[in-house]
Amino acid sequence: MNDSRIVYNTKGEAVAFIGEDATRLWQANVLHSGLGLLAAGIRPSRGWTRTSALAATSKYTGKKYKRTEINQARMDLRIWINNMKSALPTEIQS
């Protein structure tokens, strides 16, 4: 049984990602942000390259990307994020 969920506060801000699926969603969001930095020519970490970021993206999307396809990878990852976000149950923390 999977009890993954996203917990929001009363302001609508996510405060917790609980469970394996919710954690993967958080990781995908961070990866999406990192891809945006790499697309802009900024390396968020010394050891993190376009190639390694695109390989990580492939684990979510199931597609392989060339170094020049970073924007396509971001779009595909955003679709995965939106689908996962809509599939996970949510709760409001009071």
Task: Give the structure's gist in a few sentences.
With 94 residues, this protein is an alpha+beta fold. The protein has helices at 20-39, 50-61, 70-87, and strands at 5-8, 14-18, 90-92.
Shape descriptor: elongated
Query: How many structural domains are formed by the residues?
Result: 1
Using DSSP, what is the number of strands?
A: 3
Q: Which oligomerization state do the chains in this entry correspond to? A: single chain
Q: What level of helicity do the residues show?
A: 40-55%
Count of helical segments? Answer: 3
As a whole number of angstroms, the C-alpha radius of gyration is: 15 Å
Return residue spans where pLDDT drops below 50 for at least 5 consecutive residues: none
Profile the largest sheet: 3 strands, mixed
How large is the share of residues in beta strands? 5-15%
- The largest beta-sheet arranges its strands as 2-1-3
- Euclidean distance between termini CA atoms: 26 Å
Order of helices and strands: EEHHHE
| Mean pLDDT level | 93
Summing up helix and strand content along with how strands pair, one would put the structural category as alpha+beta
Write up what this structure looks like:
- With 94 residues, this protein is α+β, with helices and mostly antiparallel strands.
- It has one domain.
- The chain is built from three helices and three strands, in the order E-E-H-H-H-E.
- The chain has helices at 20-39, 50-61, 70-87, and strands spanning 5-8, 14-18, 90-92.
- It has a three-stranded mixed sheet with strand order 2-1-3, with helices on one face.
- Strand 1 and strand 2 (14-18) form a beta hairpin.
- Helix 1 runs antiparallel to helix 2, helix 1 (20-39) packs antiparallel against helix 3 (70-87) and helix 2 runs parallel beside helix 3 (70-87).
- The longest helix has 20 residues, at 20-39.
- The radius of gyration is 15 Å and the shape is elongated.
- The two termini are 26 Å apart.
- The model has no long low-confidence stretch (mean pLDDT 93).
